[in-house]
Amino acid sequence: MPDRTVFRGTAFSCDADDRVQALVDHLFVVEDGFITAVLPADDPAAAEAVGDAEAVSTQPGQYWLPGFVDLHVHAPQWAQAGTALDLPLADWLRQHTFPLEARFADVDFARRVYASLVAELLARGTTTALYFATVHPTSSLELVLACAAAGQRGLVGKVVMDGPDNPDFYKDADASAAVADTGWFIRRVQELRAATGAEVYPVITPRFIPSCTDEALAGLGALARDLGVHVQSHCAESDWESSHVRERTGRSDSAALDGFGLLGERSVLAHCVHLDDDDVALFASTGTAVAHCPLSNAFFGDAVAPVRRYARAGVDVGLGTDISGGFDPSLWSAIRQTVTSSRMLESGVDAAQPPAARGVPDSRVTFEQAFALATAGGGRSLSLPIGRLAEGYAWDAQLIDVVGHRPLPIFDDDEPERILQRIITLATPANIRAVWVQGRKVVADGEVVVGH
Ligand SMILES: O=c1[nH]c(=O)c2nc[nH]c2[nH]1
């Protein structure tokens, strides 16, 4: 007999075309973690669908939302979140980030930082995260274990950095060691998943072209082809990074990564601020997704990524916090920043320019579109059945309370669509009362409950 629960209440979720729907007083039948039926509570078939299943109903002022999918998190950098963001990218990496990441050779330190981060993300409604760990294979496994213990869906990569420009204290020994360690890491994660059923996945993770040799990139591309696992890296992130790649390879960042066999349906590339039309077409034709990290781009990107243009070209796009290039672990903030940055891209930012010359037309992202990026867009980017409250999808959900101990300023009866806008713009972690990952409750009364 499958494990069966029926969740009842009003939900906000995207349809297959990314339009946000208000499903007022619906039943969500969940069997073994997946939604098997969605129907209005007054549907004649409702009583039969509920049967003798355990029922979980919302209270007045509570709503179901899909769990968020964070497509770009540097887990070790949680230990420096909120600091040093007044430096350019290359200096920030050398002076702060690489020395911090080197400390993750210490497995106990890694365990402490990773447990703290996973709990913080879950409490903010992030049910799935695509993580960079560090170059260390064993301590990267600690991040996988932290996800498994807390019940978060975690896609984790051991970072590859074998190039000559990396500091001696923080790099892979050489290309063949980097590829062999990645293979070892992938096998360990797959074994853990098979043995425990934990929702953990290995990810091939060349940091970015400037930190890897051609030999390592080609070796990782071959692994991706042979094993069919996810791939992540950074791409077209800043003027410095893009021109470094062009000088070294004679090609754009995305064309070079494609040449190494690193683009595909399961590839997610962070930032992608500086893509020309050929790059965008390459993303669309290979099924490669963009992890849009608007807060980090404000510090390091030198421009705003035109994500509406990418979406119109058929590219999968989701959102990332980019801890700690972005200081805020909340994907709620990433949604808001996506809208804000897109408005600045459309209107332009230099008041000395005439209005018609100042911005980029058709760049605005609405709050609902940004919500879709954080949910359905993230799921599509990872090619996983997550990010929507719809039949066939995992029950990854957040229970939002707008009237409880931290009420939102909703004083009159309001349309569901307006309530969603208020939730997206104003909710804080205090409004997230409970969180489920694949049918398993991982946050209750605002506190992480599993494995802690
Ligand atoms: O925001 C960023 N964070 C990083 O850790 C990193 N490494 C390469 N490029 C990067 N960008």
TrEMBL record:
<dbReference type="GO" id="GO:0005829">
    <property type="term" value="C:cytosol"/>
</dbReference>
<dbReference type="InterPro" id="IPR014311">
    <property type="entry name" value="Guanine_deaminase"/>
</dbReference>
<keyword id="KW-0479">Metal-binding</keyword>
<dbReference type="Pfam" id="PF01979">
    <property type="entry name" value="Amidohydro_1"/>
</dbReference>
<dbReference type="InterPro" id="IPR051607">
    <property type="entry name" value="Metallo-dep_hydrolases"/>
</dbReference>
<feature type="domain" description="Amidohydrolase-related">
    <location>
        <begin position="65"/>
        <end position="442"/>
    </location>
</feature>
<dbReference type="InterPro" id="IPR006680">
    <property type="entry name" value="Amidohydro-rel"/>
</dbReference>
<protein>
    <recommendedName>
        <fullName>Guanine deaminase</fullName>
        <ecNumber>3.5.4.3</ecNumber>
    </recommendedName>
</protein>
<keyword id="KW-0862">Zinc</keyword>
<dbReference type="InterPro" id="IPR032466">
    <property type="entry name" value="Metal_Hydrolase"/>
</dbReference>
<dbReference type="InterPro" id="IPR011059">
    <property type="entry name" value="Metal-dep_hydrolase_composite"/>
</dbReference>
<dbReference type="GO" id="GO:0008892">
    <property type="term" value="F:guanine deaminase activity"/>
</dbReference>
<dbReference type="GO" id="GO:0008270">
    <property type="term" value="F:zinc ion binding"/>
</dbReference>
<comment type="pathway">
    <text>Purine metabolism; guanine degradation; xanthine from guanine: step 1/1.</text>
</comment>
<dbReference type="GO" id="GO:0006147">
    <property type="term" value="P:guanine catabolic process"/>
</dbReference>
<comment type="similarity">
    <text>Belongs to the metallo-dependent hydrolases superfamily. ATZ/TRZ family.</text>
</comment>
<keyword id="KW-0378">Hydrolase</keyword>
<comment type="function">
    <text>Catalyzes the hydrolytic deamination of guanine, producing xanthine and ammonia.</text>
</comment>
